[in-house]
Amino acid sequence: MTNSFADFDKAKMFFVIGSNMTEAHPVAASFVKNAVNNGAKLVLVDPRRTALADFAVNHMRLRVGSDIALLNALMHVLIKEDLYAKEYVQTCTVGFEELKAAVESYPPERAEEISGVPAEQIREVARLLAANRPAMLIYTLGITEHTCGVNNVLSCANLQMLLGNVGFECGGVNPLRGQNNVQGACDMGALPNVYPGYQKVTDPAVKAKFEKAWGTELDDKLGMMMPAMFDGLIDGKVKGMYIFGENVANTEPDIRHVEHCLESAEFVVANDIFPTETTRFADVIFPATAWSEDDGTFTNSERRVNRVRKAVNPPGQAKPNWWVFKEIATRMGHDWESNSGQEIWDNEISVLAPQMAGIKFERIEHDGLQWPVPDLNHLGTPFLHKDGCFTCGLGNFKAVEWTPPAEVADDEYPLVLSTGRRLYHYHTRTQTGRSGGLNDLLSEETADISLDDAARLGISQGQKVAVSSRRGRVEVTAKVTPQVPPGMVWMAFHFREGCANWLTNPVYDPVSQTAEYKACAVKIEPL
Question: How far apart are the first and last CA of the chain?
């Protein structure tokens, strides 16, 4: 997030796109609902009528995968009607003429054809955004989990810069991260192209710095991304895989393909807190401590580095993750000095990552600090790009064109499946599935379909149905609901037997390699 959760209370306007906050981020959603009850306005962009729609002054029910067309149309109106932040654009950004030329071909009438959102509603929302600045733009995986996910994010940034909403309180581009501490994992270099603190592996100076600090030679080539890793297990380019805290046999698209990849591996290590569908493929399993069983840090969506404190002793042979990694390194001939999460942070991370330099354990005893924190006297950064001063100098407009999902509805598979999360369970139920109360509240997966589609297909509430794609077939219970628009099926991936990822399409954004979980063609039949 460029901004902070504290801004939610003060915000006058929210633009929420691709985010079912009330189920995926219920605490953050409560902040938005409280703000709306106190007078803030909310525009919701979502194909489904989620619970947040009840708080929205305007709900834009776009077709799955049409976000760029809709966002370009909003910018088209802002420019055509001279409603954009001209002074901000002139002094704080570059690339405006290219953006203007691109959105010229997205009048609201064309966007209506692509997105299904009425042209007049597009104009109404553009004027509403222009009249209520700054606005906070919030998105989640409904924006990123597409073959055009990176371009979706660029479009969100384009809109906010065009409105002059970046670099101020109660504005910005604010992704709510998809998993606990995924922000922290990325900050620590769990990406194939950067070291901790987003320092590029291709930069010779950065490489030299980490080689000196770590006492070893490092590669300056970009690492592999997950799709290539899995495919490499089949053709032998990748010999083994170390899977750390992820149940890939349920979370990756096209489960049958993923399981074939894991079966083909010469060697698999799993590092986890419970047995999962993935640990079945492991040659070695390291039992790890859970979050409450060791000291360390988590970093949340607003870049806040928080302390995590040991509350209970780990069971059995479970060990902290850092300890497991250190012991493996020792057996490979390396001597890692740090012996705790605090030592790793204070003596390594804050020394090597410039934006973390001012963060020490003694400074985050209470409410944590939001990076960048460049020195020990700095109080943290509640919002980025202050007054339009971007990290790269000027904000870069990046004109992008709409592209459809890789797989669209056709005669054989006439419906579009989109996936996400439900309130009572988390991911593949590795943890929540062991809670009797949560299982009582939600004990099985459903296929959520519209009233119109249910009537047309002869499907009744609670009936068993088969949902099929070109990759697989699952049998689940039908949930007939006005939440879902005609032509769409919505499912989650919490339950193994009815997991949506037996069906989802293993195609990826060319830059981020994020899978297109949000769109694939399916058919549904009553059983």
Answer: 45
